[in-house]
Amino acid sequence: MSTPRVRAFSGVQPTGRLHLGNYLGAIKPWVREQNKRENIFCVVDLHALTIPEVIQADRLRENCASVVAAFLASGIDPAVSSIFIQSHVRQHAELCWVLNCVTPLGWLDRMTQFKSKSEGRETVGTGLLDYPVLQAADILLYDADIVPVGEDQKQHIELARDIAVRFNHLFGDTLKVPGLSVPPTGARVMGLDDPTAKMSKSIAEQRPNHAIMLDQDLGKVRKVIMKAVTDGGCEYRPGEASAGVVNLMGILSAVTGEAVGEIAARFDGRGYGYLKAEVADAVIAELTPVQGEYLRLVDDRPFLDGILRGSTDKARGIAEQTMSRVRAAVGIG
Ligand code: AQP
User: Fold this and answer.
1) Which of 36, 115, 117, 314 is catalytic?
2) Domains of the chain, start order
3) Centre of ligand 1 from the C-alpha of residue 21, in Å
């Protein structure tokens, strides 16, 4: 008898064009692993609504198409991986509400993403606080075995597990408790202009030297990497590496597969300019074919819609089975 395949669920917010952090932290590891398991990849537009300033209706729809095109261009194969838009499967919002009612408030205001994203805002939407509960609903709807996300999302996945355990404790064994999966190279990619902050789409909107965008002009890519913040010195000394240097070596390692220790040994005593030039060459070589495919696909809406249609039906089928169990367990519907 064949063993059932491990099911992986993961999502990306359509809050803007994708960057190198999304690619190296999430999409590249997904592509590498996709043939080993069943994959469900979701463009989480309901999550994107938690960032009101980057969202307008036309732009949100465009961003969704752009994420789907970026998935395909990066090598996500729709023959083995489902790709759909979160709001097209209504059960996400329904399960989120039920889970809200079992999630203690204290679990949410401890989340570091909530703290960093609410910082400095005059008003903070409830959706931002509730973001990890919707994320838990996304994961639990599909009985996911693993959730391959970047290292930055680990705390949210742990919360989703806690919510599932609590729900099962209250209502009987209903939800599958997912495992945690942080891919080995899915390290956090930091901002090139500020290596203490994670590379992020919303910061990239305001600061042109913060991130490398997947569809960025390749000449600009080189310029941004050559300007990356390192430290006051000009050459690498092992044991004294600043956050910026560690970040550049991490990027090089994630792109080429060479271990960070080996990269560090190669650059011992060499100027940062050499490191930056090598990072720029590697990133440009990686992005060149992805960009070509992305530009070919992004405006072909009928093709993208066709890809989404088949996956959405499949996702709805799985999600409805889980929601039926949940409704029966809590007594609604
Ligand atoms: N800097 C990063 N390094 C490594 N992985 C990252 N991811 C995001 N940023 C980095 C991973 O990419 C996947 C999709 O992320 P997302 O867009 O859904 O959410 P996010 O983490 O909120 O991404 P951004 O870029 O920071 O967007 P904004 O600024 O709009 O909130 C996830 O697997 C994530 O781990």
Assistant:
1) 117
2) 7-185+301-330 (3.40.50.620), 201-295 (1.10.240.10)
3) 7
